[in-house]
Amino acid sequence: MPNRVNAEKPVGVFDSGLGGLTVLSAIQEKLPNENLIYFGDTARVPYGSKSKETVIKYSLEILDFLLEKKVKMIVAACNTVSAYAIEEMRKKSSVPVIGVIEPCVKTVSQKAPENEKIAVIATKSTIKSGAYEKLLKKVRPDVYLFSKAAPLFVPLVEEGFSEKAVTEEIIKEYLDEISKEKIKHIILGCTHYPLLKKTIKRIYPEFILYDSSIETALFLELKLKENQLQSQNKAAGQIELFVSDVTDSLYDLEKLFFGKTIDRIEKVLLGW
Ligand code: DGL
User: Fold this and answer.
1) For the chain, what are the domain ranges?
2) Catalytic: which of 190, 195, 200, 224?
3) CB 102 within 8 A of CB 79
4) Computed from CA positions of residues 256, 261, 262, 268, in that sequence, does the dihedral angle turn out positive or negative?
5) Per-residue confidence at 271, pLDDT binned at 50, 70, 90?
6) Which of 46, 140, 172, 261 would be 109's cystine partner, CB 3.0–4.6 Å?
7) Would you call 119 helix, strand, or coil by DSSP?
8) CB neighbours (10 Å) of residue 41?
């Protein structure tokens, strides 16, 4: 039986900016009845080149904000947050906190054959953290993980260049090494990379791509069930969007990462 008092509360989803809307979109598709609150730290993005201390500080401020909104569960949609701050958040949170790394590692570890090579591409900070290695080694000590930072993918995607020739060149620059190593299983360890799937597959049809947005939506569904927190709402859930800065590119990025704009937007100030 679902926990009636808490089950109708919203799920809080957050990211360094609007890239995490790829995760929100996958969640909405999988769990259309859930009410969702999204926070994008548009004033302080990017996190992918920031230090661990800074990412933890920002993440804990956002945690407080989401807890004040009485969310029932929190999804850290940002890979860099999941890599650097998830443990600190879990220590301080009164509700369960899910990151995007664990769901992807779970799926890849179930699918990759014995002694397989796997690659992860992500921001510099996520790669530096070694978070994917640590989790993967726990469940699959036999596999070899090749880690590669691909920082230029973020601005290229935001610029709407996902399918341009210049992006193909940069994809080759980062991923040729992986292809030469005959690695087939590739984890897309950043909010923005799902938008490059088509172009990556065009260049490397042999790659099997793991999209953390889809894996996280499935994982959230599982965790809501385990905690008896699935909404019993029959109508479509509501989405509220909070940002720390209303930037010029806000609406364009919403369309890019979410496919449409969200009506209810509010600006909030954190930790200034
Ligand atoms: N959201 C970040 C991530 O998934 C990418 C953008 C940033 O660097 O803040 O790691």
Assistant:
1) 4-99+215-267, 101-212
2) 190
3) no
4) positive
5) low
6) 140
7) strand
8) 27
Active site residue 190: yes
| Closest to 265 in 3D by CA, of 71, 73, 66, 40 | 40
CATH number of 4-99+215-267: 3.40.50.1860
Ligand 1 pocket, residue 46 CB under 6 Å? yes
Place of tokens 């958040």: 89
Residue of 21, 79, 126 best suited for mutating to test ligand 1, as the one with most atoms within 8 Å of CB: 79
Rg of the chain over Cα atoms, rounded to whole angstroms, equals: 18
pLDDT tens sequence across 139-173: 999 999 999 999 999 999 999 999 999 999 999 99
Torsion sign across C-alpha atoms 222, 107, 156, 16: positive
90 close to 97: Cβ distance less than 8 angstroms = yes
pLDDT in tens, 68-124: 999 999 999 999 999 999 999 999 999 999 999 999 999 999 999 999 999 999 999
Per the prediction, the chain carries an average pLDDT of: 95
Q: How far is CA 246 from CA 43, 123, 243, 251, 268, in A?
A: 8, 24, 7, 9, 10
Could you confirm whether domain 101-212 is CATH 3.40.50.1860? Answer: yes
Give helix then strand counts, H and E, for the chain.
13, 10
Q: Whose CA is nearest to atom 6 of ligand 1?
A: 46
- Annotation says 104 is catalytic: no
Q: Do domains 4-99+215-267 and 101-212 have the same CATH topology?
A: yes
